[in-house]
Amino acid sequence: MAIAENIATRAQEVVNRCRRLAEFSESAEGTTRTFLSAPMRRCHEEIGGWLEAIGAEMRVDPAGNVRGFYAGDKSGAPRLLLGSHLDTVPNAGAFDGVLGVVLAVALLEELAGKRLPFSIEVEGFSEEEGVRFGTPFIGSRALVGRLDDELLKRVDAGGVSMRRAIEAFGLNPGKLQEAVLQDDVLGYLEFHIEQGPVLESLELPLGVVEAIAGQTRMEFTFSGRSNHAGTTPMNLRRDALAAAAEWIVAVEQTAKSVQGLVATVGRIEAKPGATNVIVGEARLSLDVRHKLDEIRVSAASSLIQQAQQIAASRGLSARHALLNQEAVAMDSFLVEEIEEAIRKSGCTPQRMTSGAGHDAMILAEKVPAAMIFLRTPGGISHDPAETVETEDVAKAIECGLHLLEQLASSREFLKRTSRA
Ligand SMILES: [Zn+2]
Q1: Which of 14, 126, 147, 160 has a CB 3.0–4.6 Å from the CB of 64, allowing a cystine?
Q2: Residue 152 · residue 174 · CB < 8 Å
Q3: Ligand 1 center to 382 CA (angstroms)
Q4: What is the distance in A from the centroid of ligand 1 to the CA of 193?
């Protein structure tokens, strides 16, 4: 079979496998697969079968992550990590996360038994979305040693603690140290759907992520005074909802005025919330992102200031609570190697910032990390309509194979373990 034809077949199989894993769901319709759920076990069994067929050893670590080990050309070879997450949001599509794991397995299959100067460890993270315990990245946190007692005490909606959930899955939370990365890791690579419209708008199948955007999330409260909608004249009102509305427009204008800045008010709550009562208190969420922390932070502080000015001019008060996540740069050496591999696959590499958080962001705390994005039709994700083009998956496989070849022959790369 010609190489191109062979890869097209492999790409089709990758898509089929993602659809097959999507059937392992807690819900009858759509796909819902949360941390340590019964369908997750089915998922492990399926992936275990694929790994076994290519001579890779699979274990499930004490945090519930799939770890598939494909040995290098000599014992003690350093290792390259390749993967993504296996959990989903409620009513998800078939490709978010799962595609990165299935592609990792497909790359090992394409190696057809060939051994490289590094081992490859396939990672199928147990938890990334934060659905069951309200905390994201549980799986990848375990690899960098951040799954601590505080997290283990968290409880899910049914009152089950994370520690208990790990035990109920047949794993030992006392052995979490076994999930932590050793000092032989060269880097972490993650294929993931873009989950946005950028690559599609540029008509490009693949992108290379150079940074994962930082995030500022805030909760704003405008406080005025509730009063009768019929008897309170307009000039004597302290309407919290009208103030909030003025500020929402200011948020939109501020974001539009700065290149690459996105700011969103995604939730609003008005009290008391009756047709004939002026709103006394309005609470809003704000989410601000940019690839550069200083731009995000200065935009956020400008929005806080604007909220206070708007409140003051209307005789109201405004207060806010803040949560920040700094931007994470991807490894520049790996980013350049990925660009080269995308070019060799006949595509134009597009450097981009990921607006969403990913496991690569957590892994980057300990090891060089980088991501490859696949075009997402319609930019649709976290929805059963989420899909990928099989031709794009074929390009991702080609890119991955070029990348492995480049890294295998790069002295600079092979010297890069944390051990060295
Ligand atoms: Zn994801």
Answers
A1: 126
A2: no
A3: 9
A4: 8
State in Å: Cα 215 to ligand 1 middle: 17
Say how many Å lie between the CA of residue 98 and the centre of ligand 1.
8
Residue reference for tokens 């051994």: 115
For the segment 196-223, the average pLDDT, to the nearest whole number, is: 94
Question: Of 45, 140, 129, 141, which Cα lies nearest the Cα of 90?
Answer: 129
Q: In this structure, which residues have their CB less than 5 angstroms from ion ligand 1?
A: 96-97
Distance 136 CA to ligand 1 centre (A): 11
What's the gap in Å between 353 CA and the centre of ligand 1? Answer: 15
Whole-number Å distance, alpha carbon 87 to ligand 1 midpoint, is: 8
- Per residue in 69-114, pLDDT tens? 999 999 999 999 999 999 999 999 999 999 999 999 999 999 999 9
pTM here is 0.84
Tens of pLDDT, residues 244-280? 999 999 999 999 999 999 999 998 999 999 999 999 9
Q: How far is the CA of 195 from the centre of ligand 1 (A)?
A: 8
Q: What is the rounded distance in angstroms from the CA atom of residue 100 to the CA atom of residue 60? A: 18
